[in-house]
TrEMBL record:
Lineage of the species this protein comes from: Bacteria, Pseudomonadati, Pseudomonadota, Alphaproteobacteria, Rhodobacterales
Keywords: DNA-binding, Transcription, Transcription regulation
GO molecular function: DNA binding; DNA-binding transcription factor activity
Protein name per its UniProtKB record: Biofilm growth-associated repressor
Domain of life, source organism: Bacteria
Organism: Boseongicola aestuarii
SUPFAM superfamilies: Winged helix' DNA-binding domain
Keyword Secreted tagged: no
SMART domains noted in UniProt: HTH_ARSR
Domain HTH arsR-type positions: 11-105
Gene: bigR_3
Gene3D superfamilies associated with the record: Winged helix-like DNA-binding domain superfamily/Winged helix DNA-binding domain
Amino acid sequence: MKDNPEFSQSAMAQSATEASTYLRTLSNPARLLLLCQLVEGEKRVGELEEALGLGQAYVSQQLARLRAEDLVRARKEGRIVYYSVADKRVLTLVQVLYDLFCSQPKTDD
């Protein structure tokens, strides 16, 4: 960070609470996987259940938490509810997490 002239300790101090809340929301594996599904585009609750192998009640509970934090939005069409990413920072963060944990072999450093 010391080599990054755009990094500001005071800006981070002002945003620390928001960032912590954001990361706490993503700390649940099911919520993180739901967001991973939604970065690909809008999906029905049933599609999310099937893709993750989770029950409807649990998926709905986790989606409610993501909605409460304004990370996803819901759109109703009749009785079907579609979810999509509401906060574009999710796209960047999911990509960074993928790059850090999925696309590189683990090192002992």
